[in-house]
Amino acid sequence: MYTTLARPLLPLALPLLLVPQPSPRLLPARAPLLRVLLPLPSLLVLIASGMSSAPTVAASTTFASGTTPTFLPNAPPLPNALSLNPANYPPLDKTPPVDSPEVQQWIKEVNATGIQIPDFAPTVAGGCPTNPDAVNDQSRCWWTCGGCAAPDDIEQCPDKMTWGLTYDDGPALYTGDLLAYLDQANLKATFFVVGSRAISYPALLQEEYMAQHQIAVHTWSHPPMTTLTNEQIIAELGWTKKVIKDVLGVTPTFWRPPYGDVDNRVRAIAKAMGLQTSIWTRISPEATFDTGDFDIAGGQTTSTQVLNNWENIIGNATTIDHGFIVLEHDLFQQTVDIAMDYILPDALAHQPPFKIEPIISCLNKPLQDAYIETNDNSSNPIGMSSAAPTGVSSASDGAHTTSPQTGASATGSASSAEASGNSSGASANGKNSAMGIAAPSSMGAIALALVSGVVALFL
Ligand SMILES: *[C@@H]1O[C@H](CO)[C@@H](O)[C@H](O)[C@H]1NC(C)=O
Ligand SMILES: *[C@@H]1O[C@H](CO)[C@@H](O)[C@H](O)[C@H]1NC(C)=O
Ligand SMILES: *[C@@H]1O[C@H](CO)[C@@H](O)[C@H](O)[C@H]1NC(C)=O
Ligand SMILES: *[C@@H]1O[C@H](CO)[C@@H](O)[C@H](O)[C@H]1NC(C)=O
Ligand SMILES: [Zn+2]
Predict the structure, then answer these.
(1) Domain segments of the chain: what residues?
(2) Quick one: which of 68, 206, 247, 357 is 20 to 30 A from 192 by CA?
């Protein structure tokens, strides 16, 4: 398998190592002083668990509060992100308490939409194997266990050869490197932002937004959402919407469930909170467009395996009659390095070319529709009043059938894949921890460990 990968991918990286020729990474547009500190692109084998930490690219600019984004009609001026006090937000990486005045208010607002929330009990920790009744209840339409998608779910881009580029779980230490790369390559992406990271790195979040990437919600503490009560789901989504609005002045209209863990109860609450559920492409139980990149840092997979998954993804992407969305992360150095050094250069060199853009753009919508405050409410009503999604979808590719056995058993390992338990990566190495439900707080722990000690690098 390695040989098939080495062909297209290694030649792209090797010349940069052997020839003193500038690569995009060596010439970050807005951080020239950092040039000499930036490492050469990594050899694949060096992108591994425990790799030595490279210097990071801090937020390149601090935007003055009051700066108005000119690229976004009707956008409010940027708030002063540096004035935000983390003490005014819930503790990091824990589901926020539901008895705060904020959450109580959001509960009332959800109720006032009149959207019916299905009366399913939360699932229990352990994922598909420990919830057989929920897996078999088709009215629940549980994406994680069986891949059931509701009609409203965004799982793909409509146009063939179009890639809705996404990065989850940031902003974090290496997001600045990725932003510099994307700038050089003239690419825009969708960032699914964790609220706990947003309050930790507000300047990086502003830089993402001002670079015209799409900012979307990825919960406050990254739990498997089907395990939470209705009130906890509201708290997770509400605080993430709030912190993003406090940092950017705008509130996202898209969200992605961590681990893709969504059912019709979670979908209905998200909809009542003005959030469009977006997952990633799944064309069969074996072909889920998850690179598995999250698992490199914890040693559950290798960079070679991730590139093998990537080869399968683009192989499948060129055969389907619609576009696609791939799961990748900007949380770890390993995930950012493999994106910058291998996945993106490979995708950019692909013939015929891929059109690479944020989800909002691949849906042929203007960036304004990505935020409540700038959304064109007449052409794009944000779904407050229609009924909750019900039943099992009949997606056009016919892949969304419920299969009770879907999902690997949890490994109990320190890291948790943001995978549906049946990604191409998971089935290939058998090491995926289904939905990460065994250790839902471990990602927060890893993120915190990474974050502490280097926090001074960031504003
Ligand atoms: C809203 O709350 C009221 C009072 O608790 C309840 O009777 C009603 O069913 C709720 N509506 C919805 C849509 O949940
Ligand atoms: C599609 O993905 C599956 C599973 O990852 C893989 O076995 C298959 O070879 C891929 N197809 C192509 C055309 O690459
Ligand atoms: C759309 O409606 C929201 C409230 O739901 C409002 O904040 C926003 O300003 C409206 N959009 C425009 C462009 O007026
Ligand atoms: C994925 O699902 C298929 C069919 O539903 C099953 O045969 C396979 O063992 C599963 N893989 C994992 C890793 O759970
Ligand atoms: Zn995530």
Answers:
(1) 81-375+383-457
(2) 68
- Give the span between the Cα atoms of 49 and 41, in whole angstroms: 17
H helix or E strand, kind and range, residue 146: none
Contact call for residues 219 and 225 (beta carbons, < 8 A): yes
Token digits of residue 458: 């960031």
Kindly give the number of the ligand 4 atom that is closest to the alpha carbon of 426: 13
Q: Fold for domain 81-375+383-457?
A: TIM Barrel (3.20.20)
- Nearest protein CA to atom 7 of ligand 1, as residue: 111
Task: Report the amino acid identity of residue 245.
Answer: K
List pLDDT tens digits, range 254-305.
999 999 999 999 999 999 999 999 999 999 998 999 999 999 999 999 999 9
Average pLDDT, the chain: 80
Active-site entry in 213, 218, 329, 400: 329
What's the predicted TM-score (pTM) here?
Answer: 0.80
Q: For residue 359, how far is its CA from the centre of ligand 2 (angstroms)?
A: 23
**Ligand 5 centroid – CA 194 distance (Å):** 8
Amino acid at 62: T
For ligand 1, atom 3: residue with the closest CA: 111
Q: What CA–CA distance (Å, rounded) separates 117 from 154?
A: 20
Residue 308 CA from chain centroid, whole number: 21
Least confident of 22-26, 76-80, 119-123, 373-377: 22-26
DSSP 8-class letter at 258: G
Q: Which atom of ligand 2 is nearest to the CA of 286?
A: 4
Q: Would you call 332 helix, strand, or coil by DSSP?
A: coil
Measured distance CA(108)–CA(334) in Å, rounded: 42
Residue 216, pLDDT score: 98
Q: What is the DSSP string of 283-314?
A: SSSS-B-B--GGGTTTTSS-HHHHHHHHHHHH
Distances (CA, A) of 147 to 135, 180, 384, 426: 10, 35, 25, 15
